[in-house]
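Morning run. Coffee first, then this:
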Amino acid sequence: MVPILIFFFKKDSLHWSVWPSVILCLTGGYLLTDFYDAIVRLGDALVILGALFWSTHIIFTGMIVKKYNLPLTIGAIQTFLVALFSFLIGLLHEEFVIENILNEIDSILYAGILSGGFAFVLQIYAQKNITPAPAAIIFSLEGVFATIAAWFLLSQILGINNLIGCAFILSGVLLSQLVPLIKKS
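And here it is:
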């Protein structure tokens, strides 16, 4: 969605290699899902809505970090706001039991500090040096790493579609990164 949003709303020119990379990553993602039943449900619409918000997050993060060059500050503000809003929503919809929270404190801290805070600060820092469209394409490698981790850690069996999907996504990422470099030299 990032290249499409940039194309229509920012009117920025995108390198031609972005479009075949997007198609390769979409095809690869489809092959990774083992999607056989084409019934669209409410959850699917919510995922698409979430992807729209994630796309705008990538675009605005890229713009802000290039303008102000403060990745740690931006990451800290983002992490604080997410924690605050999550806490407020949790107060409305969740039951807080201190004993249960203390039982899961390791998981909570891991998700909050490493998976949330640290990973997003690294993303923001990396977006200083790359435009949003190739950044979004690189982020599609998350599915490849999740698939490899599931195979390695959980002993899940990968079908030929999964392997081809990983290859498509990797090809899309390499295409988006290497073709602009070849043209410069």
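Residues 2-184 form one domain. Good start to the day.
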